[in-house]
């Protein structure tokens, strides 16, 4: 006679019939009840959060659960994993790809062609050098720069930035060091910086 009890409990304590399974972040964990749930990568901040439409801006993405092999997409454009530097599980460095027009794009993370943070993407703003406000700023900046023979009426933006940086450096050096008058001809930019500083001092710290 075989008796069956409702309270019977069978425990399998064998260590030989189980094998640990490596979790692939791209797998749908809802289909595997015996696999521990892992957290998907999350973007919390992007610094800087804007850059030129020409691309090439180096940014740091702050978040959680970053790992080697992640791909970063700016809108429809994907930056492949070999161009993504994982610094720590909480930070990565990426260079932005170019975009044909300014505007806001979603920044998403993918792994093996599967999007991981679709519900909580980051945001990045593409800015164009030809926007009216920026173009007006370049025009104002050009008026403060020295003019050279042969200069066109409107300088290229790259040249304006280069001369502005040189002028700022010359202004800084003229404030930091007091040197005797040189015996050789003075560099035009240094001479302009000295005159610029003198006019600034004459107006009691205000330049008009």
TrEMBL record:
The keyword Zinc applies. It comes from the Eukaryota. This is IPT/TIG domain-containing protein. Residues 40-127 form the IPT/TIG domain. The lineage of its organism: Eukaryota, Metazoa, Ecdysozoa, Nematoda, Chromadorea. GO terms for cellular component: nucleus. Gene3D superfamilies: 1.10.287.4280, Immunoglobulins, Transcription factor COE1, DNA-binding domain. It comes from Brugia timori. InterPro entries: COE_DBD, COE_DBD_sf, COE_HLH, Ig-like_fold, Ig_E-set, IPT_dom, Transcription_factor_COE. One of its GO terms (molecular function) is zinc ion binding. Its main location: nucleus. Keywords: Developmental protein, DNA-binding, Metal-binding, Nucleus, Transcription, Transcription regulation, Zinc, Zinc-finger. Belongs to the COE family. It is found in: Nucleus. GO terms for biological process: regulation of DNA-templated transcription.
